[in-house]
Amino acid sequence: MIIQLYGHLRVAAGAAEIELRLEGRRRLREVLADLPRNIRDAVVGEDSSPRPGLLIMVNDVDARSVYNYDLYVEDTDKITIIPMIHGGKTEPFGPPVHPG
User: Fold this and answer.
1) For position 17, which CATH number holds?
2) Is the pTM of the predicted complex or chain greater than 0.90?
3) Which among 46, 62, 64, 73 is most buried, taking Cβ atoms within 10 Å?
4) Strand 78-83 to strand 2-5: parallel, antiparallel, or no bridges (unpaired)?
5) In Å, how far are 8, 69, 80 from 16, measured between CA atoms?
6) Domain, as residue range, for 61
């Protein structure tokens, strides 16, 4: 399974994505709780629930809105974790464009 990371999670992981082997189906919450500690602490709270302020998608579908995080995942799935506040482009966009 590929887990794509964005924002400060990339810095914590030292990579844009990590790979996990599940060996079967597991609940999303269990997979998140088994992330490496430097990422897990930013993604799930002490009660193993996903922290607020994160968009967690499974196969490009919002896991909270559609499944309330209650779904099974397997090795062929892709999880994407995006902090709601995350870095953007680091270079200037150029001068502002004014209509008219």
Assistant:
1) 3.10.20.30
2) no
3) 73
4) parallel
5) 10, 22, 10
6) 2-83
